[in-house]
Amino acid sequence: MQPGFPFLLALLSLLGSDAGDLVDLTPELSPTSVLQSDFTSSFTSGSKSSSNWSASSGSGSRTQSFSNFTGSKDDRGTCQCSITLPDTTFPVERVERLEYRAHILYEKFQKELSKVKEYVQLITIYEKKFVNLTLRVEIMEKDSISYTELDFELIKIEVKEMEKLIIQLKDGFSGSSEIVDQLEVEIRNMTLLVEKLETLDKTNVLAIRREILALKNKLKECEASKSENIPVAPPVPAPGTCTHGGVVNISRPFIVQLNWRGFSYKYGAWGRDYSPENPDKGQYWVAPLNPDGRMLEYYQLHNTMDDLLLYRHAKQSRITYGQGSGTAVYKNNMYVNWYNTGNIAKINLTTNTVSVTQNLPYAAYNNRFSYANVGWQDIDFAVDESGLWVIYSTEASTGNMVISKLNDTTLLVLNTWHTKQYKPSVSNAFMICGVLYATRTLNTRTEEIFYYYDTNTGKEGRLDIIMHKMQETVQSINYHPFDQKLFVYNDGYLLNYDLIFKQEPH
């Protein structure tokens, strides 16, 4: 056997040839020894390339050819050779796996690339916002006062402007200036309230602005009446008295605020408790109905108008038997129509308990003869200088309005008057000095006090007093004899009206 042949066989063994054949051919040599084998046998001198070799083993003979190799022998007789064996098998499965992985990687790349594009757009938007925010912060840092303080400064300026305007109005009015004097007092109270809020709580800017807006509206009304040469209203009669000839006009609405339960509570009533013993000490009450427009479940009491405006120090109570928005309060008692019946009830506001219930004789109820556009108000309570009243209809009156004077302690009927006015055609009603005043809707922004019935004389007649409103539907009207104001619940908003009376001849 030639010395270089075992080396080739060992090399083929490393490349994956049949191991059994190699053992037979070269049992005495390992691949490591072959690599550095010193050939002592004769080798064709020089170098050989692209040659063929043959090998035999044992008794038999086996020939195997190899190609694409080079070999040489150095000066010390060491043979060095290299061989190239091409792989004739194409790796189809590996290529398919590679293509599949490449496809998955491409989809992931596209998804991440779309996210990058989206992030680039968001970064551009946020960059603009940060620039804008930086400018606003720089302005705030340069300013010596906070925004809240600035709001109060602006309010003070507005109040001072109204003070100047009221002085000009007083100089321009001829004759009585009771309304202007009243506005002047309210503006002074506004100044004190602003100072108080500024020292106590600087988060009430919105509430105070509501009052300022209402005062501005009153000033505009006075200025307009001056320019139109409208006759100045007669002097206001003494509070709680009937030394006048009845209502002849009404102011524009003073918007107090939205009811405390929110926009969804469009039906209800509100007002101020009246007691002849303490006419100026009554609590303010707000009684919104549930969104169904029928059940009176919760009401609130406030000791002062400031508490009402600022939603503070409220006493909230719950009942489960009130129906409709015909509620009234007299001498610290609330009067309601008992749910789903023709009965009336008296509720003590101190204890929130029912002290008296009574059946109202022959009264229709449960939407039989309610007001126009207002449901569940078949029985409507009213308060005036002389006490407690109830306005309703009966089957015998064929739906015309019936007025009854009640004993406020026992709820028994003291006297009754029948009118010729059909109740379902009336939008609402109230009592002043024993006179019933009824309203009707002209359009979405205007009501008209169009009818009266005087229980003192039994006379009835027509009026044409325009009454502006904020929203479309008037749910209730309550009169306060001492304040001489109407408290109107208008689609969830609490409105005030000042009344102008005819001066009684001496």
Keywords:
single chain; 506 residues; alpha+beta; 4 domains; 7-stranded antiparallel beta sheet; 5-stranded antiparallel beta sheet; 8 helices; 23 strands; structural molecule activity; signal; Olfactomedin 4; coiled coil; Olfac-like_dom
Care to describe what's here?
One of its GO terms (molecular function) is structural molecule activity. It comes from Rhinolophus ferrumequinum (Greater horseshoe bat). This is Olfactomedin 4. It is found in: Secreted. There is one protein chain. By secondary structure, the chain is α+β, with helices and mostly antiparallel strands. It contains eight helices and 23 strands. It has helices at about 5-15, 20-25, 30-35, 90-140, 145-170, 180-200, 205-225, 305-310; strands at about 50, 70-75, 80-85, 245-250, 255-260, 270, 285-290, 295-300, 315-330, 335-340, 345-350, 355-360, 380-385, 385-390, 400-405, 415-420, 430, 435-445, 445-455, 460-470, 475-480, 485-490, 495-505. The strands form five sheets. Strands 6-7-8-9-10-11-12 form a seven-stranded antiparallel sheet. Strands 4, 5, 21, 22 and 23 form a five-stranded antiparallel sheet that branches. A four-stranded antiparallel sheet has the order 13-14-15-16, with no helix packed on it. A hairpin with a 2-residue loop joins strand 22 and strand 23 (about 495-505). Helix 5 (about 145-170) runs antiparallel to helix 6 and helix 5 (about 145-170) packs parallel to helix 7. The protein is elongated. It starts with a helix and ends with a strand. Mean pLDDT is about 80; it is low at about 15-65.
